[in-house]
Amino acid sequence: MTARFRLRQALVIARLELARVFLSRRSLWIYGLALLPSALFLVHSIDVRYRLAKARQGGTVAPAVIEAVETGMSEQQVLALAGKPGEDQQRTIRRWTRREEGGREISESREIRSRRMTYFDGRRRAVLWFEDGILRSKNVHEILNFAEDREVYAGVFQYFYLRLAIFFGCLGIFLNLFRGEMMDKTLHFWLLVPARREVLLAGKFLAGWIAATAVFTGGAMLAFAAMLWPHTGAGAEAYWQGPGAMHALRYAAAAAMGCAGYGSLFLAASLWIRNPIIPAAVLLLWEACSGFLPELLQKLSVLYYLQSLCPVPAPIEPDTPALLRLILSPAAPLSPWAAMAGLACFCVLVLWAAAAGVRRIEINYSTD
Amino acid sequence: MSAQEIVFENVSKFYGEVLGVNRIDLRIPPGLTSIVGPNGAGKSTLMNLMCGLIRPDRGEIRVLGISPQEPERLMRITGYATQFDAAPRWATGFDFVASSLLLFGYSPSLAEKLAWRALEQVGLTEAARRKVSSYSKGMRQRVRLAQALAHDPQVLVLDEPLNGLDPVVRAETIALFRQLAAEGRHVLISSHVLQEVDAISDRVVLMANGAIIAEGDIRGVREEIHEHPSQFLIRCAQPARLAALLFERAPVAEVRLLEEDGALLALTRDRRAFTRTLTLLAAGGVPVETVVPADENVHAVYEYLIGGAA
């Protein structure tokens, strides 16, 4: 048999297996996992667009006007400066205060006339709060914050998508390639064709990788598109013409390489260990702790290479305990090409170990 | 080792502590061979070993000179229909057979042609476009058979192939096995139903508890069992007279007049002398209508060998 023939066989196996992977009932939850960020960003985008449309209905002011408004100004001054507000609500409230007099606590109340005015400059919304005609607070927030959205995307991608969605999705897809067929009592079909076990492994891995990549890269790109959707300004256009396309490509590459890295590990585990849930749990723990490990050990985790591929560093929550921040020492990231090459070498090594496992696999449906 | 035979040499297989087969020495020539034994006798283990689905703990196996650990070569000449369905939920009978042929390297058009031929051989052309998941047990049996023989293998291994078939299809399937065997192929079938393979096999391999307890053609095996006298069922017009003559002239151990009119059962330890005497009696005017060996069948042989476990 020639290498060309074996390659053709692997491709036929992959093609036949793809239909099983995509149409399997076991895959349904994986689609949900992959589409969850897209759904979240879509809901966020719809909400943003609704709020933008609503804010625009009340008219817009120049950004400088919002900057010029300061606490302590009177209603008339603000109205003179900014004009008619987008929203204007007035009411009277009764405020209670307590004070001590001669060792006794005295409660007093008085009526306050409050007024809430909002202005919109096309991007930011300012909520002004007046009490008895004087501006007491000014709350400005961006309805549309491109930098923040990109950072949120980076966080969702690295903390949820790579560490959980792709991890568990690959667990579901790649474990089923052999172990699932053993449980369905259908694995013998593949072992009774004139193909080497290694060719079968290659074909099945290819099918799993194509399916996982299609689902998770597709999911990541959908979420990216949903994140970009409401951003139509010059900033977004500049981003898209500048690093945007490369960012999208790097997220796609990280998702695809994540599928290859975790996929190869789970495939090998399913061939060597009867209950692969235990190694999966160990791997999850290892990946979760990788940031705290010495630099050399960090390079033995799939996540290290995937994070090197991500274009935007994952944000660290401001309320992360100081001790954790102190011991969290991410290794210096590799260049994208080096990360891809490193992960590819890692996959080859793991698949080599899996090949030894597939050669020793036996059909024994009664005990599996 | 012979390149024309399937050879097992001192083969043992254990599933942990459980015995699969033990010290099997067997040579299977071309023709229709049945492996018979009760459930758990080791029939499927023997077939799985032959096709490389499991590996022996000890011993060596060669299928026409090829090791089962060389699937690239072995599965080109071997077709194996196991007891288990392998068709995916969404596949039609045709898809199932044709897709496996693509893995042999056939072009799609040739795979299609071979698939139709195989489906025709098992009488499944009309249902070929239906999903396998909607098939009856017998149809699933037949589609597995079609898949096993679609690439025209020299060795056909069939695990309980007659299970679930209705009488007409069973007869057609048996005729197909006989035809394939007559073409010089190895057709190896397993069964736990003794009667069904008795009439169709060139040779039988009787198994119990993971070991081969007898092999060969039924008559040969029966002749080797000396502890039990051979039984002949004789029909004649004067059974009492014939019984008396047999006692007088033939080496019989026992003669029983049966309740059925005109029938008697004779037991002898010397078959040749008995049949010679019977021939002489018939030639001398004793009205013998039929003589049938009553225990030259798998069931009887099995009963003698292991006490009727099957």
Explain briefly what this protein structure is:
The complex is a heterodimer of chains A (368) and B (310). Chain A is α+β, with helices and mostly antiparallel strands and 368 residues long.
Descriptive keywords:
heterodimer; A: 368 residues; alpha+beta; 4-stranded antiparallel β-sheet; 13 helices; 13% strand; elongated; B: 310 residues; alpha/beta; 13 strands
Main β-sheet of chain A: number of strands, strand sense, barrel status? 4 strands, antiparallel
The whole-number mean of residue pLDDT values of chain A reads 88
The count of DSSP E runs of length 2 or more, i.e. the number of strands of chain B, is 13
Q: Which percent range describes the beta-strand content of chain A?
A: 5-15%
Per DSSP, the total helix count of chain B is 11
Q: Tell me the structural class of chain B.
A: alpha/beta
Total helices of chain A: the number is 13
Instruction: Determine the most extensive contact between two protein chains.
Output: A-B, 28 and 29 residues
How much is the radius of gyration of chain A in Å?
29 Å
Q: Give unreliable regions of chain B as ranges.
A: none
Enumerate the strands of the largest sheet of chain A in spatial order, edge to edge or round the barrel: 1-2-3-4
Poorly predicted residue ranges of chain A: none
What string gives the helices and strands of chain A in order?
A: HHHHEEEEHHHHHHHHH
Give the oligomeric state: heterodimer
Which percent range fits the helix content of chain A? 55-70%
Determine the strand fraction of chain B and express it as a percent band: 25-35%
Overall number of strands of chain A: 4
